[in-house]
From TrEMBL:
Source organism per UniProt: Motacilla alba (White wagtail)
Name of the protein described by the UniProt record: TIP protein
Coiled-coil region list: none
Lineage: Eukaryota, Metazoa, Chordata, Craniata, Vertebrata
Signal peptide residue numbers: none
A GO CC annotation given for this chain: plasma membrane
């Protein structure tokens, strides 16, 4: 029942990255490499975590805007440990 850690980082003013850290016996270990924000995203919304597909593991849901005025939006869903974005 130890908490894991999810970070949204900005290594420069043009990109946003996501990092997942897993708590193993009180020590945090980074899982995989940092994931870039979806290509074409101009504005990134608030991350949401839940078991959307009922498999017992939480997924990362990320709402984004594909233009500056947010007239065109999308929702991305990723699974921990996979590079695939749905």
């Amino acid at each position: 029942f130890l908490t894991d850690l999810f970070l949204t980082t900005s290594p420069n003013s043009k990109t946003i990255q996501f990092e997942t850290w897993v708590n193993k016996d009180g020590n945090f270990s980074k899982v995989g490499k940092s994931k870039e924000m979806p290509s074409g995203a101009k504005v990134v919304g608030q991350s949401v975590f839940a078991d959307f597909d009922g498999d017992g593991q939480s997924e990362h849901l990320l709402p984004v805007c594909e233009d500056e005025t947010c007239q065109k939006s999308a929702i991305y869903l990723t699974k921990l440990g996979l590079d695939q974005v749905m």
